[in-house]
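Hi V.,

You were right to ask for the full record rather than a summary. Here it is.
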Amino acid sequence: MTARRKQEGTSVLPGNLHVPEDCRAVSEVLSRVGDKWTILVVGELGNGPRRFNEIRRSLGSISQRMLTLTLRGLERDGMVLRTVFPTVPPRVEYELTELGRSLLEPVSGLGLWARQHSAAIQEARRRFDETAANANA
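Predicted structure:
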């Protein structure tokens, strides 16, 4: 085995692992899909098309501005389709595109992982902070 030790359950990729173009692309995508409101909006739209106020009510504490920005960003990235119906007043619905639906499984899995491991992470933080405080004392 090389100087890099293989961790259990992971694979070591050959060659240069840092490709700046790939890093930027991944960073941009993760900044969108890793956002708290994006995850919640995608989860809500996973239940089917919703109107703006339906989404806002279901999420509770999101501001109108933040929901607008989140939906606009998701629409720009091709994950949400915004449909305006020619009624008086106009009715607008938001729904996940195929690309947006493909995000449901990883987002749900990450959310589940976070809930399952939250207590362990909190305990690790407590131990780390305690050790750091003792080292600085």
